[in-house]
Amino acid sequence: MNLTNEIKSYLERLFPICRSLTGDGNRETFRILKEIVPLNTIEYKSGSKVYDWTIPDEWNVRDAWIKDSVGNKLVDFSDTNLHLVGYSEPIHRKMHFVELAKHLHVHQNLTEHVPYRTSYYERNWGFCVTEKQLLTLSSSNGKLEVFVDSKLDPKGSLTIGELLIPGHSEKEILISTYICHPSLANDNLSGVVMTAFLAREILKKNNLNYSYRILWVPETIGAISYCAMNESEMKKIQCGMVVTTVGGPGNYGYKQSYNSKHSINLAIEEIFRNEGIEFITYPFDIHGSDERQYSSQGFRINVASVTKDKYYEYPYYHSSADDLKFVCPKRINQSMKIYSKILDKLDREKIYKNKFPNCEVMLSKHGLYPKIGGNLLPIQGRETEIDTILSILWMSDGKTGVYEIANNIKVNEGLVISISADLCSRGIMKQLA
Ligand code: ZN
């Protein structure tokens, strides 16, 4: 089977599964993804404190529907899991429409479709319906029977998928995607599936410079839990990507990491240019996905996303119209190749650390400075070799890569590497990756 067809078959198998922050749907998703890559699943117990958050009770649903007074099902969870508000608590009761109406949600614009709604941290229940279903419910005679056969288990757990791929360096690149959305194809089944195939691609690569940490987490609480449980490892990460919305028919785009000058942004733009792809640049902002956690003060990892029909931006976002007709396996394959090329570029990046962070090194002692001082005036707009050496030492803090340094001082990467290698041989710098 070719890759596009493989992606297609996994999209079809995974799409109907009811995923959420927790639950058997997530575990079933991981069982299927394990056919693609040997990821590990980790369970974090409900009730565990993770920074300012608490891992919620595990949520599972067997069935949910609304019947009219003579027993016709007017809304049925088995048609699409989007009909039920995520984390709905159990209920089985007859009520008039006026009471039910407080628990019904329709899409503002796409009235023929069902919106996606959740109520994770406030106990509630609800149904998402089309406008037509809303009319049928409102004009139905007598009481309506509401049934939600769900369970919220305080003894449950939250499931995470993790794959660690070692490279030569201890420095890591993070790839993270979110698995908490139920039957929504671009946001984010496309990301879940693409990440699995990308991981398989990385596993095939020989001679990786960096190590790779690949995560499938429920959004927000999953990323927070993982950071809390792996704090020291997460603080060693060089940079990362959150894989989301990669299969739509619209434009490519990328959300920059918080430092727009960081190598990851330079690498993404270079690959887009090399591939001749027009793209939209979304500057970093505090909304979005799990880059919010990974880039928070304590971690400050530069995390970017390459998207095709970015979340928030396309009209079908968070509605039942975001289905398998909207995404295309071929485009997911194409997005995967772009991610793979970006990672190839990042994997080749070298990182050096100045061994003398406290004030400048004495260049003349190391044979790097003219012995007669006084005649070296900085020349506007022209860097001398000494300037380049000083700039490289200034920026080589063990975190800043050579792409960023080269871009900053407007010389090519090769020059930064050769000067850095020379400084290493003189014992002034050391190479970290
Ligand atoms: Zn979403």
Keywords for this structure?
elongated, Aminopeptidase, binds zinc ion, 31% helix, alpha/beta, 13 helices, eight-stranded mixed β-sheet, Arc Repressor Mutant, subunit A
Provide structural commentary:
The protein has 433 residues and is an alpha/beta fold. The chain folds into 3 domains: 3-56 and 156-348, Aminopeptidase; 59-152, Glucose Oxidase, domain 1, CATH 3.50.30; 351-431, Winged helix-like DNA-binding domain superfamily/Winged helix DNA-binding domain (Arc Repressor Mutant, subunit A, Orthogonal Bundle), CATH 1.10.10. The protein contains 13 helices and 19 strands. It has helices spanning 3-14, 24-33, 97-101, 131-138, 185-204, 221-229, 231-234, 263-275, 291-294, 329-347, 385-395, 402-409, 413-425; strands at residues 40-45, 49-50, 53-54, 58-67, 73-76, 91-95, 104-105, 127-128, 144-153, 157-165, 172-178, 211-217, 237-243, 252-255, 279-282, 302-308, 351-354, 397-401, 429-431. It has an 8-stranded mixed sheet with strand order 1-10-12-11-13-16-14-15, with helices on both faces. The chain has a 4-stranded antiparallel sheet with strand order 5-4-9-6. Strand 11, helix 5 and strand 12 form a beta-alpha-beta unit. Helix 1 packs across helix 5, helix 5 crosses helix 10 (329-347) and helix 12 (402-409) packs across helix 13. It starts with a helix and ends with a strand. The model has no long low-confidence stretch (mean pLDDT 96). The site of zinc ion (ZN) has 4 residues, from loops.
